[in-house]
Amino acid sequence: MVLEKLSDSLKSTLQKITSSLFVDEKLINELVKDIQRALLQADVNVQMVFDITKKIKERALKETEPSTISKKENLIRIVYDELVNFLGGPGSKMEIKGKKPFKIMLVGLFGSGKTTLTGKLARFYKTRGNKVAIIQTDTWRPAAYEQLKQLSEKANVDFFGDKKEKNPLKIYKTYKKELDKYDIVIIDTAGRDALSDELIDELDKLHKEVQANEKLLVISADIGQAAEKQAKAFHESCSVTGVVINKLDGTAKGGGALIACSVTGAPVKFIGVGEKIADLEEFKPEGFVGRLLGMGDLEALLEKAREAMTEEEAEDMGKKFLKGEYNLIDLYEQMSAMKKMGSLSKLMEMIPGLGQLKIPKEALEVQEGMLEKWRFAMNSMTKEELEDPGIMDGPRVQRIASGSGLSVSDVRSLIKQYRQSKKLVKMMKGGGEKNMEKMMKRMSGGGMKF
Question: Per the domain annotation, does 80 fall within a domain?
Fold first, then answer.
């Protein structure tokens, strides 16, 4: 998970609130110290840490809770509200509007991950129904052209560039008319080791020609608190409109970078949460803090679901559930959609309640491995077996195991999972709310098995 250590610390802090008999000044002081410790360990600036915890303490001691919630719930709400404000306040997504093409220009220093981010951003908008093009204007780094071309193929978008030309302005002017037929154009620019007059001049000239709607600064999360200085310098010199923080999943300094950028004049608009081309998210403080605290992020989950399956596929699946129809083909489609949505650990942190379950990361990785094995098994089944798993007997199981290179127990575990899933579908069809409630209680109580 992104900022996993910070998330674990904050969840433990909230657990202390829920397990306390009552809310008093002693509990609030302990809470403040725990939050300070968690934020400092995440490389957040000391003064910022004191500022947020001071606000939390003042509100907790002075504020009267609404009649609809308890003192404990109000304290958790205060922590949530202040963390959201700390990260820039309620987020608003980048609006793609106005005259086409909408132009996004990416700037940043060497090693920040601009080129990789270009491919991720192209895929992000392509999957949302836009006609996207990428153009290469980085003439400094020898491998930039080839890397960007490969990324454009992965993102399934059009690519423009000139490997031999050394003038970025000439490259853009060459393809300017062709780019007018696209909804979104993403421009990858050159970087330097530091923000120099030479880089500022190059970016300004390119921006005057491009007239970009958004000029996004790409920063690597591993620079920690130094992100604030870099974000301010680029914002003042190059008038960047927003920040993208890359590599947020792989560093303990991510908290420092994220919070440092949020207090500059350029808000954080996207975060890179992994190495794959799909590992990019719009940054929305409310949902992000919800995940950190184990409250989930349904909006992000729905976004992932929309990417994984069409509305028609989702509607068809829903109709089958209502009728109580469910076979291995449906299970296969569910598994394929889940694979597109990302890892199990990332999905679980988005589902309210499940993020608080202390399921070991290793257990989730084992489960992901089983899902992959089950896909192999289903690829070795006949159409008849997929549509009617009830006919599965010993010889059939043996044949499927041999054909897929799996053990008999692996195939039997798939059949067992199918039967459990079918029971759940029947519960949903029959409106067995009490049964569903019992099941959810077992899950929240840690009875969920993997």
Answer: yes
